[in-house]
Design a protein that fits this description.
By secondary structure, the chain is mainly α. It has 11 helices and 6 strands. It has a 3-stranded antiparallel β-sheet with strand order 1-2-3, with no helix packed on it. It is elongated and about 70 Å long.
Length: 267
Amino acid sequence: MEFGVLGGLSVEDSDGRHLPTAPKQRQLLGLLLLHAGEVMPVRTCVTEIWGERPPPSAATTLQTYVMHLRRLLARMPSIGSRGAAHNRLRRTGQGYLIAVRPEELDLLRFEQLVEQAGRAADDATVARLLRRALALWERPVLADVRTGPVLQPAVTHWEGRRLEVHVAYLDARLRLGRYRDVLAELAVLTRRHPTHESLHARYMTALYQTGRAADALDVASRLSGRLARDLGVAPGPVIGRLQSAIRHGVVAPFPPVLPSLPGRRRA
């Protein structure tokens, strides 16, 4: 059995996909899976689905949604009974909890791989593990699920987490001297995040190390213009020092601009 939130919502078993079709049930399942193993209070679930002014029947309707999700789980061969489905989707105290094993949920597999990379002794292993972690992401988190006031910040958090890990992956490859190999990824990431200074610093370094000093300085110029136009600020000292080093031809092989690998974080 596999659950997925890194992209579209997915629930798959040996006999195929098992997904609720009702938007609010999908929203509830996405919320529970994004916080798998944690109790989500009834009030939090209600707020996610109906906002700050839920109908009087919200708590009762939520129970109905949970019942439908349990029926869906009970039809899966790897669960196979109502009792087992209740054990998976539990009412605990003042809320609900969905229990999954780490290997069953792509988000937990992602975090396991990142933690393994954090313990790795060499950059080649770090890069290999983080590449596997990033390969689990197909699209933005819960891309096909409507998000409310609880889910939206969580989705934003995990998208930030994805970027952190992607940067750590690029750092490992840069430390291995794979400057040319990361140019395309850094070009895409700096376009996607036009005011992200550390990404631009990495892009400038890779360009310089592949003999493209003028292009590296152009990247700094575009960043400066975007920061001034959008935020009314100038680049920080890292960009300034890197510009100066490029002009003088003294850029060293890639040093980490930020701590290389972020620790585990939950939304």
